[in-house]
Amino acid sequence: MDQLISPASDQWAPQRRLGVVDGLGPHTTARFYAMLCENHRALTGGSSPDVMVHSISVQRRLMEAFSAGSFRPGHQEALQHLVSRTCRSLAGSGADVIAVACNATTIDPAIVAPTCIGMVEATCRTLRRLNVRRVGLLASSIMVSSAAYERGLGEAGITVVAPAPRDQEIVDQFIELQQWSPTRVPVPGEFLRVITKLGDDVDALLLDCAELHGVVDTEMAGKPVIDSVRALVEESCRALLDPVPDTTATADVVRCVAAANSVAGARLPSRWSPSRWRPRRPLRSASLVPR
């Protein structure tokens, strides 16, 4: 309040604006925003960030494809097109930095924006700073099978290790319990065994699931634990508060997205119209609800 009524002679330095691309579900974006405000205030002595959020309007067919784990090349292209268009819209609305709070796709290097950061790219930068060469991925089977981290981190020379098929089933079951339980679920012994087994073979563990945040930690894993949302928060704050271009980080992004096809100028078939309404149908499995 003191800042709001300060004399006119006390001029603030212009604050950089963050544009946030909402993902396929609101939970990750909501958590990202809460953590962003907390981190930004801690770094600035209490100042709130200047943030715009643009939610992607995704038609039901694309949502169901992701939820059912049946993402085909056409689906990925459609999602990349929506993300690219939303990023350009945010940039045109005055965003200096754009954060894509969606782990289902990597960012398009052809986006016209000063700084654009995706979850995979932010995680890559964090892992490189920690000199991690092998990372264990803890996420839903949908995210693991998408190979988004395997492709993105692999371009930077980081090997992604996923749980064995039976161990992944245990992870999915625990995630589903966490989703639908009104209280914290005790960690079962078989889940602990999966964490220990995976941790023995890697330099760090990567969490890409909101339900595992606050459950799997360094003490449990015996290795550093990196949260993909927190990585995006830290990179976003760094870009907002330190506008000096980081050439190393830029090179990381280029390597991470080199394999992605540019769809910035593509025109999608009418069936991918984001405003095309469909009646909502229940998802096949509770464990596959987009977060």
Automatic annotation (TrEMBL):
Keyword DNA repair listed? The answer is no
Q: What is this protein called?
A: Aspartate racemase
Gene Ontology molecular-function annotations = amino-acid racemase activity
Q: Which residues form the signal peptide?
A: none
Pfam families assigned to the protein according to its UniProt record, in alphabetical order: Asp_Glu_race
Keyword Translocase in record? no
Q: Which domain of life is it from?
A: Bacteria
Keywords of this entry: Isomerase
Q: What is the species of this protein?
A: Mycobacterium nebraskense
